[in-house]
Design goal:
Elements lengths: L4 H9 L3 H6 L10 E7 L4 E8 L7 E7 L7 H15 L6 E8 L13 H4 L4 E5 L11 H7 L8 H14 L4 H18 L5 H7 L9 H17 L5 H17 L5 H7 L4 H10 L6 H11 L1
Parallel strand pairs: 3-4, 4-5
Antiparallel strand pairs: 1-2, 2-3
Length: 293
Amino acid sequence: MRRDPIFYQMFQRSPEWLFDLIGERPSSASDYRFDAVAVKEPKFEIDGVFLPPESAPGAVYFCEVQFQKDEALYERLFGESLLYFYRNYTRFSDWQAVVIYPSRSMEQSSLYPHRSLLDGDQVHRIYLNELGEASALPISVATVVLTIVDEADAPRTARELLIRTEQAAFTAPEKRTIIDVVTSIMMYKFTTLSQLEIREMLGLNLSEEPRAIREAKDEGREEGREEGREEGREVEAIALVNRLLKRRLQRDVPDQTRARLSTLSLPELENLSEALLDFTSLADLENWLVNRE
């Protein structure tokens, strides 16, 4: 999953979108957490896992986004998923697998050995190009489909999606998430354009900064007051990295570690902001800092 940063960002911000794709929402959908998990003996990591809340144990969902052909995908997906479920079966009531393809042509050729699973109700195969026109789909599903819309049609589709978002009965944070994800998708599609040009293409309010930058500045100002630091790009970057780490690790970064982060240069902070997508614990952050030092 981390090889597909758009989907990683999407599901980390809104795990419930997965359930909109497969057309079934558990009652605790809004409490699910998208994360990476590890299995020992043998050790491997599954980086597209939707975990139910501990307070209401439910099904665990394994998700693969497959935009390149992999002739051993199902062997790996089912082998790893079933082993993880076996190791943790007391935590979950069921397991489900979701595979998202841009089209059927990306699916592996050998399906027969897995017919009982593929034809059952535990495995959901999503072919984005078969879901229909984005304008006729729920906004969350349409946002996912935007990833496969060709460049010629993408600006119009994205603008229509943002208009629908503004008119929908979403909360302000929900609208902000959709705007940020749509902007990110368009930046991946149009790599030669700046973020300002992308936002102008989408008809967004250019006087309003993207959420990530705005939050970083807000927290940067607060940290500047607390630590007497001078506001600037490094303060904003440190604040943003701290927010991302808190969200990724599901805990506050210890003060001692935050102090070490404050010594990083801007290029190092940028490298950390990418590396932390692979972190599963505070120990991963500590190891990264040790290796850097």
